[in-house]
Amino acid sequence: MENPLEFLRNIKSVAVATVDKGKPAVRMSDVMLAENDKLYFLTARGKPYYKQLKENPEIAIVGMDKNYVTVRVKGKIEFVDKSYVEKIFETNPVLDEVYPEDTKEILEVFCLSEGVGEVFDLSVVPPKRERFAFGGATVEEPGYRITEKCTACGICEELCPTGAISEGDIYKIDRAICLECGRCYEHCPSDAIEQATGF
Ligand code: SF4
Ligand code: SF4
After folding, report:
1. Domains of the chain by range and CATH?
2. Which of 16, 131, 140, 149 could form a disulfide with 197 if both were Cys (CB 3.0 to 4.6 A apart)?
3. Which tens digit of pLDDT belongs to each residue from 150-191?
4. Does the Cβ of 85 fall within 6 Å of ligand 1?
């Protein structure tokens, strides 16, 4: 697929989750710009959104297109120079109708500059997933993994809904098509399967 950050910019309105005094908070927010592996958003200093980000500068984002391709991202944000307000107005002219010129001073721009993400493509059967990272973060591999403890009994292969498990001296999971349902993990008699790094 295209660059997953560009994908989110093209969707434009995505769900952005923050932490509000230890509890989750979410809203739709527009990706105003995708540039140099960073996603830019706009908010106003009076919004709970802004206050939550000041207290805990981390977000999680999800967006899905009409083909049921989902991109999720989580990572750190930073507030950027006020000059970005003008840049964002230039690339998103609809903002002129919401914030007239003399009200722009209340606006702040932040960017998601480092994080990890996942593309989950439900337009194909079985669905495919792929992890990525940007801004210096390390990719977290998706799905479950079979370890050396495997006795090759074959139980997991029969239970897997996507056919992601193949036989061998040690059975193997194709993590790109693993649904992360955990069925193999729960039923393995040898405790040979490691749990996925979740999103
Ligand atoms: S169920 Fe466990 S021991 Fe059996 S093949 Fe699968 S991973 Fe190996
Ligand atoms: S977690 Fe579910 S989809 Fe993934 S390999 Fe195990 S049984 Fe298959």
Report:
1. 4-134 (2.30.110.10), 145-194 (3.30.70.20)
2. 140
3. 999 999 999 999 999 999 999 999 999 999 999 999 999 999
4. no
